[in-house]
Amino acid sequence: MLMWFLPIFLMFLLIGLPVFFALLAAPGIMLWLNGQERDITLLYRNVFNGIDSFPLMAIPFFMLAGELMNKSGITSRLVEFAHAIMGHLRGGLAHVNILSSMLFAGLSGSAVADTSALGSMLVPAMVKQGYSRRFSAAITAASSVIGPIIPPSGIMIIYAYVMGESVAALFLAGIVPGVLVGVSLMLLVKYMANTRDFPVASARYSWSERKTASLRAFFPLMTPLIILGGILLGIFTPTEAAAVAVGYSFFIGLFILRSVRLSDLPDVLTKASLTSSVVLLLVGAAMAFKTVVSLSHAPEYLAALILSVSEHPLILLFLINILLFIVGMFLDAGPAIIILGPILGPIFVDLGIHPVHFAIIMSVNLTVGLATPPMGLVLFVASSVSGERVESITRAIIPFLLVEIIVILLITFFPAISMTIPRLTGFVS
Predict the structure, then answer these.
(1) Among 230, 257, 326, 338, which one has the highest count of C-beta atoms within 10 angstroms of its own C-beta?
(2) Residue 264 above 70 pLDDT?
(3) CB neighbours of 241 closer than 8 A, spacing ≥ 6?
(4) DSSP string spanning 201-269?
């Protein structure tokens, strides 16, 4: 009977119940109906146990670092740097949008933060240049999914926490896939620019102007190097790296750029705490949800069902990509990883798929789901910053989603894309 918690959960989502409450209500109801009232206490206790984790502290720290970076005007410096490199091309501002997302990914690791920060700046600029508002919002939403793929990545921290994998290995494995998504989007924009006669953003920057833009972006661009370098060299853990990123962001904002004042800190801390609380509550609820998943023996049933279809790894990987893409339409990446990771991960590892490779397949799939209807979070954020309807953005984003699906298939069937850097650095055997 417990197996019915999943359809009930999906029904709650469809009627508009917030994900946090749906994650708790569905299994709670089924435990009660199954006569397991005592386990309900265990269910809700696991909400707090799921949050009480040192590795997960990296998430609020990275979010705070992102808020400090945004407040200090670093976003505008990254956009200026991207503009200096690619602004002179046809469709230059669309290219700038994508490159800015790739650069911003190394600071925040959040698709929502990317959409909000860059969208509020670039969408009006693109509209002013002659792009349609819905195209501007669509390219912002589509490129923002790069944020959680290129390190530091919040969802990869969650995956490592749930599955016991190395955060450093996952971070390294996400570099090439993230860059590949960005380059693929740029190639599509180049094709669209030629066929639709997109405007040229500006005159070509001189080398001295590019040097100036590069120097202005130097300190922000050092952030991912400090984070990754410190982790890879064993100087600090990912959580400590996130705390270092906060300190570094605060220092350059207050003393180097002098764009942050002490009076700004309450507002920054409030925004970061609100965003962090949402993510951590979802993680806690997902951990509680996972408890009922275990009690219902759903993993065994699902494993048997998957293996009954085929035992060929490539066929199963293709099918699981379809499943993950559909799940990503309805569920945020963090909770989806916590619920499905322990179920699907062991199945594919037993079939010979490297656990880090599967982690990247799952993470990229669910990240792209953030930009897919009906519950794609970045679509709603893009709608908010652009003033365009979600339905209109959804239609405009379809070509970009198709490109990202192709990239997902490449990552799936060519493991070297994600595994080469971790292997070369010795983090994966």
Answers:
(1) 338
(2) yes
(3) 58, 152, 226, 227, 230, 231
(4) -SPPPPHHHHHHHHHHTHHHHHHHHHHHHHHHTTSS-HHHHHHHHHHHHHHIIIIIS----GGGHHHHH
Read off φ and ψ for residue 14, nearest 5 degrees: -65, -30
Tell whether 23 is covered by a domain: no
d(CA 284, CA 50): 5
H helix runs in 55-91, sequence order: 58-71, 74-86
Q: Please identify which residue in the block is written with the tokens 């293996």.
A: 307
List Cβ neighbours of 20 (8 Å cut-off, separation of 6 or more). 281, 282, 285
Q: Which tokens sit at 389? A: 């309807």
Given a contact cutoff of 8 angstroms between Cβ atoms, the answer to whether 125 and 388 are in contact is no
Query: Cis ω on the peptide bond leading into residue 238 (within 30° of 0)?
Result: no
Taking the alpha carbons of 307, 313, 315, 321 in that order, is the dihedral positive or negative? positive
Angle at Cα 170 formed by Cα 167 and Cα 172, nearest 5°?
Answer: 110
Is 377 inside a domain boundary? yes
Number of structural domains in the chain = 1
pLDDT digits (tens, 9 = 90+) for 355-380: 999 999 999 999 998 888 877 888 88
- Tell me the pLDDT band of 42, cut-offs 50, 70 and 90: confident
DSSP state of 119: H
Structure tokens at 220: 């922000």
pLDDT band at 299 (very low <50, low <70, confident <90, very high): low
Identify whether 12 is part of a domain: no
Strand partners, 200: 90
Give tens-digit pLDDT for 388-411: 888 899 999 999 999 999 999 999
Q: Which domain holds residue 189?
A: 54-424
What is the spatial distance between Cα 107 and Cα 342, in angstroms, rounded to a whole number? 29
